[in-house]
Amino acid sequence: MSVKGVEGSGAKAPSSGAPAEASGAPVPDSTTGPLVDVRDVSVVFRKKRTLAAARQVRAVNDVTFHIAEGETFGLVGESGSGKSTTGRALLKLVPTESGSIKVAGHDVTNLRGGSLRRARRSMQMVFQDPYSSLDPSSTVAASIAEPLVVHERLSAKEARSRVNDLIEMVGLRASYAERYPYEFSGGQRQRLAIARAIALNPRFIVCDEAVSALDVSTQNQVINLLERLRAEFRLTYLFIAHDLAIVRHISHRVGVMYLGRIVETGPAERVYTAPAHPYTQALLSAIPDPRRRSGRIVLEGDLPDPARPPVGCPFQTRCGFVMDICKQRVPEHTAVEGGGEVACHLQTTGPTLAGSPLNDLVPTRATSTP
Amino acid sequence: MTRKKEKDARDDGELLRIEDLHVDFLTDRGWTNVVAGVSFDVGPGEIVGLVGESGSGKSVTSLSVLRLLPNAYSRTPSGHIWYQGRDLIKMPERELRDVRGNEISMIFQEPMTSLNPAFTIGDQIAEVYRRHKGGSRRAAFARAAEMLDLVGIPDAGSRVKDYPHEFSGGMRQRAMIAMALACEPKLLIADEPATALDVTVQAQIVALLSRLRDETGCGILFITHDLGLVVELADRVVVMYAGEVVETAAALDLYNAPKHPYTAGLLSAMPHLGVRGKELPTIPGRTPEPWRMPEGCRFGPRCGHTSEECVVAAPALRIVEAGRSSRCCRTEQLNLAGSP
What we know:
Strand order of the largest sheet of chain A: 6-7-8-3-9-10-13-12
Largest interface: A-B, 45 and 43 residues
Number of strands of chain B: 12
Largest sheet of chain B: 8 strands, mixed
Distance between the termini of chain A: 43 Å
Distance between the termini of chain B: 22 Å
Strand order of the largest sheet of chain B: 6-7-8-3-9-10-12-11
Largest sheet of chain A: 8 strands, mixed
Number of strands of chain A: 14
Region (Disordered) (chain A): 1-33
CATH class of the largest domain in chain B: Alpha Beta
Family (chain A): Belongs to the ABC transporter superfamily.
CATH architecture of the largest domain in chain B: 3-Layer(aba) Sandwich
Shape of chain A: globular
CATH architecture of the largest domain in chain A: 3-Layer(aba) Sandwich
CATH superfamily of the largest domain in chain A: P-loop containing nucleotide triphosphate hydrolases
Oligomer: heterodimer
Strand content of chain A: 15-25%
Domain ABC transporter (chain A): 38-284
CATH topology of the largest domain in chain B: Rossmann fold
CATH superfamily of the largest domain in chain B: P-loop containing nucleotide triphosphate hydrolases
CATH class of the largest domain in chain A: Alpha Beta
GO biological process, one term (chain A): peptide transport
Shape of chain B: globular
Radius of gyration of chain B: 21 Å
Strand content of chain B: 15-25%
Number of domains of chain B: 2
Keywords (chain A): ATP-binding, Nucleotide-binding, Transport
Order of helices and strands of chain B: HEEEHEEHEHHHHHEHEHEEHHHEE
Structural class of chain B: alpha/beta
Number of domains of chain A: 2
Number of helices of chain B: 13
CATH topology of the largest domain in chain A: Rossmann fold
């Protein structure tokens, strides 16, 4: 993969407040506190109806997590779990109902107007579909230059040399700048969307299903690019995806969401090898693996209607370990051996795992197929 | 999961045989060839996976079987699609209509666009059934409920009166499968049926297809870009690249020991639950455009194993071992790694 233009741009990259030292160390230090700090955040969508009470959906429900500088936090879950909404709430693209969000020193929840715009320089987003996130009627140069024109008040001409650097930084030729989005393949378009996202030297990027629409080989190219940029510019990622294998590859820590709640967090290695929540276990078992030795857990049914979530644990309707207490109380987050937390009654009641992962605990209700 | 042996399938005779299929599309550059001499077959009760990246021609091949490509922009200059001794390519449209949805049916990637939002699920399943099998409305509706129950929709008797928007994504795909199977087809063509769905729902759909094959004995042509999924489900896999078949083999053989560098590249690029931090393997370059096919081997420019012979002439698909073929002239010299 091309690494042209790295020297030229690497020098000016950390100029906007990021630490000058881009060591590229995979494990971030925790002395300065997390770059992203999310506490008890809820997002509620309301839909007014004429002859009935407004339909209210708690898309994100008391979500708490943090991401250290230079770290990648993966967020997985089925569609409707609230993972994308969480990503959007972090950039204030959707209003939050309660809780606090701090990104790179900005209190995102209370920002508005000019100060919100200034804060947005340090946080960017890469969307799933590069076909719809790039303006089809302007050249890619114009699309990538736009944030520079808006935020750094550069003239289009001045922005041009920066645009060329950015395009080379994502592994494309600078001569492509005058082309239109339709002239590129899906993978190239996603590279251009990434070039636009890093144009303002952000510190935090939300990647919302950024590689989901790409073929495997192209997907890997884009992942490698994201990893290289992270090490070079000490970027911090929130990586949202439904593909668990990709998330494991790129993430230091992982959060698993179900029906608006984070049900498990922890170091990627621990979550994948020793899941502590039955939902995490079922998700992992759903990954196709022709050499699978143990039986696959096929979850019955679908996500419950988020406007009418069950009382108690959100996963009770599909859980193989369901107990009486699950239908009464929402489980607390408790610490898990090997790092992270889980919200499951099995930790404190029934088999009382007290921090142990699920391992070979046998379900009380049959959900497995051989 | 039961894995029907390839041998059995051949003993039973064939159900579908695609023979030297060529498909052209009308583009700005005139007629452009997009499927170049594809041949493979599907036996009764056999699940065959058709795999390739976008642009490989796998969907065009599958759409050609029921002649679902627009006549104005596509043509089939040569080739045969034999279904139980009859050539679907030459079959009159009127006759073909009795085959579609009845003897061969098809499910697509996006169930919401395949279902009519203005009619109930039951109406739509019953319509297919009455068109082919006749009978009363009431009987057809009962059949619809029975089919929904078969594909695992809870409370099928009342959900049959629901509209598509009242179903979740996974349930819609189940409803599509119910519709496709209502007339007990002998062949089901599933074009990326699980791609737009969550992994958990994907697992449900794959388990369902496998169970239905066992229960109804229909053959399934399963088109996907997900090699992991196909190897788990299919008996045999056909890999396509740039409009050609590059490799065919029994599913696990292909997974463990590919005989074509492209298959090996796809296998290594598959996301694995491996260690983080390592650079992910990729296949350099991209699929060639149909009007700019490379000389000699079409995969040559992206292949890490090329020699002079690869550029001289386009390699033919040839049998390299019993039951497997490869379109690589160096297969015997290469020791390609299977999935890690």
